[in-house]
Each structure stands twice: as structure tokens, then as C-alpha cells.
Specification:
- Helices cover 40% and strands 14% of the residues.
- Strands 3-2-1-4-5-6 form a six-stranded parallel sheet, sandwiched between helices.
- It contains 14 helices and twelve strands.
- It has two domains: 8-163, Glycogen Phosphorylase B (Rossmann fold), CATH 3.40.50; 180-380, Rossmann fold (3-Layer(aba) Sandwich), CATH 3.40.50.
- The chain has 381 residues and is of the alpha/beta class.
- The chain is elongated and about 60 Å long.
Length: 381
């Protein structure tokens, strides 16, 4: 396949936000290898803004598939299975297959390695040359495939896939393109909440899959310790689904909320606004979730709290990880092995004082750096 000269390329990435971000080096490598080709990407609707302004992507095709839902209790799965959205999906599937067939793709690359993606969006859609991983039996429908290593990072696996096309140089730099308008919106949000240049900004992002979630109360206790000792502004971020976590945090932070040291932006920012926020001089504390990959794209110092999953497989190399025990899961979708407790109980093994001491050191380093910058500016002036 290294001799191919495709005119239309389809890249499929229908799962999580973090994986969409980790896929951006693929678009850049494809454009460099095939500058005359048009690169299309098929991703979930809620993540299309992540690549909408990417110069390496010519067209975004938003499409939600029902098989990439987070695994949950059987009752919730039954509700999803018999929901109107799922029951009507066959009609949307026929529509998207027709749309893809009209593009006459020479090359299709599924970065998920899902049998259903391969069959519906490449075979049924008439993609001539098909490339993906050998994960779920779909390799029998592929022109070629790469061996997927569950212990390796997504960046490494994607690089192995591109080597089949003769692309041997792919770096780990992640791309996200933030417009000046979005930057101004975030600047206005911060100004309206009284953020100034003297206070350090610490972003707390408590959301994640349930099994990978450090308790919200621990985030709140950590925030209280930081707000009581340092001149900081704590910024809470998250999606609509994290509003319940915010309510758990508020009782611990109420005093600092009244003093204006806590800002809640949970459910109040878009993905690009969150990226613009993290591009400021902030420190992010989060779980093993997609926001840490967004932070990596804008070089935001990040402290990620891991529990059952493997940092080697899911953390970006630039992210600092705290994990009190060895990972027991190769995938976030595997069932928790600690049946004697609740799923994700190991997240409690990370104590608040451990995170606090590490963050305290980072904030002291930041203050020292700021004082040094001020000294140099004064000396130069």
C-alpha cells in the first residue's frame, strides 16, 4: 500500500474526545504524504469542533454510532438499546453509507479497529483500499492491517498503521486550532470573574468514566487546602454530566466561593473554550480522561490521577501521572476486578495530601518563576 496515490482519504475515529485529539498527528502525516489528496474524517458530532479548523482536514463528517457508548449497568444498556435514537439508527446508517459512497474514497483508515466501522463505513461504503487494526475480526475485510498493542499508547499504534503506507516520520505533537474569537470569549469570562495576573490559576476537572474518577469530595478538599494557603483562583470545569459532581464539591468550597476564590465553569464552556482556558498560565488537575489530551495540545502543565488504567497506554508523554498502585486494566471498558468493593474503588487509594504536596511544589515553582520574570523585566526596564 506504500505505492498508493489516493485522491480521497477517509479517516474514521468514532469514539472518545481524547482519541480524536490523539488522532491529529495522523491527519498531518497524511497531508504531508499526499498533499493533493482530500482528507475526510468521520467523528462524533459533539467532537467535530476539535478538527473543524484543522488545515489538514478538508471535510468533517459528523456521525454518532450506537456501539461506542460507555459501558454501564444492564438496565441503562437496555434503555439505550430500545431508545428512539437506537431504533432509528438503521435509517441514519443507510444515509451515511450513501453519503460515503458518493465520495468514491480510494483509501479508508479506521483508527478504532472496530469490525462495525470497517464493514459499514468502508466495505459497504465502497472504499477501495481499507486499512485498520486486527482488534475485532475486521481484518478479513481489510487490504492490510497493523497489530494493535493494548499496552502501547494510541500515538504508537497509529504510527504503526501509517508505516504500512510508507509514512515513517510521525511525531507526537497534537494539534488544536483556536480562533481569536474563542480566545477573546475566554478572556472575557476570566475578567468577568475577577481573574487578575497575581493569582495562580488551578483548574480542577473532576469528571471521567465512573471507574476512573477520583472522588469529587477529594477534589474539593484539595481545592480548599490550596485556596487557604495560596493566592489562587480555582476553576471548576466539566460537562453537563458533571453537574452532580459540582454539587458534591460545593459544601467543601462554600467559604472560598463567597470569597471569590472559586469559579465554576462546569457545563459553561465549549471544548474549544476549554482548550483556550488551558492555554492560559494554568495548572490542570484531572482524572484519566480526554481533557488531559487537550491540555497536552496547548502545553498546559497537567497532573493526572490514574487508578485502574495504564498510563503507558492512555497518558500523553508530557503529562505527569500520579498512580498509587499498578494498573489492573488494559482498557477502560474492562470490568473492575475488585468485586469485593465498588467499581473504581482503587481511585480512593490516592490520598488528598499526596496530591496537595505535589501541587504545592508546582505552585511554589510557578511563583518563583514569576518573581524571576518580574525581576528581569524590571532590570531590563
Amino acid at each position: 500500500m506504500s505505492t498508493l496515490k489516493p485522491r480521497n482519504i477517509l479517516v474514521i475515529r468514532t469514539d472518545s474526545m481524547g482519541d480524536v485529539v490523539l488522532s491529529t498527528p495522523v491527519y498531518r502525516a497524511l497531508k504531508k504524504k499526499y498533499p493533493q489528496a482530500k482528507v475526510f474524517t468521520l467523528i462524533r458530532k459533539e467532537f467535530q469542533e476539535l478538527v473543524a479548523d484543522n488545515p489538514n482536514v478538508d471535510r468533517v463528517i459528523p456521525h454518532n454510532v450506537p456501539w461506542n457508548k460507555e459501558r454501564s449497568a444492564w438496565l441503562k444498556r437496555m434503555k439505550i438499546m430500545f431508545s428512539i435514537e437506537t431504533l432509528l439508527y438503521p435509517f441514519r446508517l443507510i444515509w451515511i453509507i450513501r453519503l460515503l459512497r458518493r465520495q468514491k474514497f480510494d483509501l479508508g483508515i479506521d483508527l478504532v479497529g472496530d469490525f462495525r466501522n470497517i464493514f459499514f463505513f468502508m466495505v459497504a461504503s465502497g472504499v477501495k483500499h481499507r486499512l485498520s487494526f486486527n482488534r475485532t475480526g475486521g481484518e478479513y475485510f481489510l487490504s492490510d492491517f497493523a497489530l494493535y498493542d493494548v499496552c502501547e499508547n494510541q500515538l504508537t499504534n497509529n504510527a504503526k498503521l501509517l508505516e504500512i503506507l510508507g509514512i515513517h516520520e510521525i511525531d507526537s505533537k497534537l494539534d488544536i486550532f483556536i480562533s481569536q474569537k474563542v480566545k477573546e470569549e475566554v478572556k472575557h469570562i476570566l475578567t468577568s470573574h475577577g481573574v487578575n495576573n497575581t493569582a495562580a490559576l488551578v483548574v480542577l476537572h473532576p469528571g471521567a468514566k465512573k471507574i476512573q474518577r477520583w472522588p469529587a469530595e477529594n477534589f474539593a478538599r484539595l481545592g480548599k487546602l490550596l485556596a487557604d494557603e495560596f493566592e489562587v483562583k480555582l476553576i471548576l470545569t466539566g460537562t453537563n454530566g458533571d453537574l452532580a459532581l459540582r454539587e458534591k464539591m460545593f459544601p467543601f468550597l462554600m467559604g472560598n466561593i463567597l470569597r471569590g476564590k472559586v469559579i465554576s465553569l462546569i457545563s459553561k464552556t465549549s471544548i474549544l473554550q476549554l482548550a483556550a482556558l488551558l492555554a492560559q498560565d494554568v495548572l490542570l488537575i484531572c482524572n484519566d480522561t480526554g481533557v488531559m489530551h487537550i491540555a497536552a495540545t496547548v502545553n498546559c502543565p497537567t497532573l493526572a490521577i490514574f487508578g485502574p488504567t495504564s498510563p503507558a497506554a492512555f497518558a500523553h508523554p508530557n503529562i505527569e501521572v500520579i498512580q498509587p498502585r499498578k494498573p489492573c486494566k488494559l482498557s477502560p471498558h474492562e470490568k473492575c476486578g475488585r468485586k469485593d468493593t465498588f467499581p473504581g474503588a482503587c481511585m480512593n487509594d490516592t490520598k488528598v495530601d499526596v496530591i496537595y504536596e505535589r501541587v504545592r511544589g508546582l505552585l511554589e515553582q510557578n511563583n518563583t518563576r514569576k518573581q524571576r520574570d518580574i525581576f528581569h523585566e524590571t532590570a531590563i526596564g
